[in-house]
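haha ok so turns out i had the wrong file open the whole time. this is the CORRECT one, sorry everyone. sequence first:
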Amino acid sequence: MKYLIVGLGNIGDEYRYTRHNIGFRVLDALAKASNLVFEDKRYGEVAEMKVKGRTLILLKPST
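then structure:
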């Protein structure tokens, strides 16, 4: 089974460490802990990981 986890945030370095980017920061921490790298796709940055037989798709939207 696949699960989509979307972290909401604002694009741009001026927002990187603000409360408006907590969703991006949570996904970045999860990806770092799992040695994942985000790939730039059509609608944002995407990474995939497996946990207990389930696929988690992490998305940081750019739209």
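The CA atoms of residues 2 and 55 lie 5 Å apart.
again sry for the mixup
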